[in-house]
Input
Amino acid sequence: MDLNWYQTLNKPAFTPPSGAFAPVWAVMYLLILFSYITFLRTPSQESKASANIMFFTQLVLNLLWSPIFFGIHNIELSFAIICLLFISIVLTIIFFYRISKLSGLLLIPYLIWVSYAIYLNYGFMVLN
Output
């Protein structure tokens, strides 16, 4: 990933320092993991298939964003991906919450963080 390219971008207001992203994402990934483990361990008469599909959809979109933004420097495509990520997180929360309230609630900070990331991505798109 080309972090030098990132340093040259005009940044939107309220862009955190570069060093803030790694610790925040570490916490987010732990919450995502705990949410999924809680979901899997919760007994349910309801099928978990749709929830699993949504979970892995959001995970793939999450993993795609960085190479698109930092790797190929496509701010517009990364914006589309992060908007789809937001929708898939909302759906994952709904599906998880039906099985385990805790597993759904554990994803709320992730949704908030991705909402903030949408603002930043949009700002980068407009300013650059």
Q: What stands out?
A: The two ends are 18 Å apart (CA to CA).
